[in-house]
Amino acid sequence: MISIEMNILSIIKTRIRFDRNEFSGAFGDIGTDLPLIIGMILASGLNACNVLIAYGLMQLFSAFLYGIPMPVQPLKAVAMIVITQKIAPGIIYGGGLSIGILMLILSLTGLIDLIAKYIPKVVVRGIQFGLGIQLSLIALKEYVVSDSVSGYFLAIAAFVLSLVLLGNRKYPPAIFIILGGVVYAFLFNFTDFNITEAVSINLPTFYSPHFSDVITGFLILALPQIPLSIGNSIIATKQISNDYFPEKKITIKKISFTYSIINLINPFLGGIPTCHGSGGMAGHYIFGARTGGSVFIYGTLYLILGLFFSGSFEQVVKIFPLPILGVILLFEGLTLMVFVKDIIDSKKSFFIALLVALIACGLPYGYLIGMIVGSVMYYISDDKVKNYFKIK
After folding, report:
1. Mean pLDDT, range 266-271, rounded to an integer
2. I want to staple 71 with a disulfide (CB 3.0 to 4.6 A). Which of 238, 279, 280, 355 is the partner?
3. What is the enclosing helix (H) or strand (E) of 78?
């Protein structure tokens, strides 16, 4: 029994590590996640306690299962629709459940592997490049400029510090820029804030989605989200996990299956629809993470917020100033864009990737259209395909 326990502990230690680099990497995706979570809670009147606790638990699940920085993220298309159209909570839960069911079907039938098989690597790089452009523009146009002159100075200082320390295993950058943001917040954002009044113990409640909400959620939320999920959350995430951790041999089916599981659980916990994502992994990795420890730390942060601070959530999250989140988001976006370097030697491949990127970030349903257009262009320009039709 003791040897079994020792073996289990040994396996956990190799998959979940806690050090300064994992702590730094834990904040690598907060620039994307936190504003979307706040926006969804405020727009739809979601129970902050439930959302934060469910979100934290899904991070812990992913941390233990993968043992690499494979964080969970809000579904971006869903989040944008919820925030702009103020979708009711029941429909959000129903939409998340319908997404989970659809992804489970794609996983168990093997259809997701078939789809991924015919999406060429140049198209995946284009999707990553397009997402990187989107994240970088949001960082610069919305976050960095959000806090007047003082926010500019904060963002510039954080950016320079990140450049200087990026890749430094002894002094990982996110620790210092987050601490700088906390100091800034207490100087400028918490002048009349009483931390003792903000603390309270909050417990989640459970929900049971209605069938009508599942149908409505499928039509309103799932249909716009699925193309982005297949392209970025699954195929691009599989590619980036192979880039960073080739020895892990993470498969399309495993990513799509865990994607489905978290969305089959979230609605009953009152949580928002979530996914994996290439940007999230890139963010954690670029700021130092190499195991599931960063995701575990990140999930624990949300559990603490949900259990003890969800009653004053809007005030407490000001501890993470938007200019700081913008700098983190900018590096996440730039990291995604850099992956195009492995196809840049081929003019044809680079052109297709660039076209996919521009379509993805510039058109409605851009990720779906970009995948289709890019794949068609790749195959009709492929010499093997041309020779096949010549022979025929």
Report:
1. 96
2. 280
3. helix 76-85
Task: Evaluate whether 100 touches 263 at the Cβ level (below 8 Å).
Answer: yes
Tokens of 149: 């002159």
Contact between residue 33 and residue 317 where contact means Cβ atoms under 8 Å apart:
no
Whole-Å CA distances, 25 to 96, 164, 177, 290, 321: 27, 16, 12, 8, 18
| Domain range list for the chain | 14-391
**pLDDT tens digit sequence for 127-166:** 889 888 988 988 888 888 888 888 899 999 999 999 999 8
Q: What angle (nearest 5°) sits at the alpha carbon of residue 46, between those of residues 41 and 47?
A: 110
pLDDT of residue 147: 82
Q: Closest by alpha carbon to 355, among 345, 365, 342, 369? A: 369
Q: Are 53 and 306 in contact (CB under 8 A)?
A: yes
Structure tokens at 75: 């579904």
Q: Give the DSSP H or E segment for 224.
A: helix 223-228
Residue 46's region, left for phi above 0, alpha for psi from -120 to 50, else beta, is beta
How far is CA 283 from each of CA 99, 222, 226, rounded to the nearest angstrom?
25, 26, 23
Q: Can you give the length of the chain in residues?
A: 392
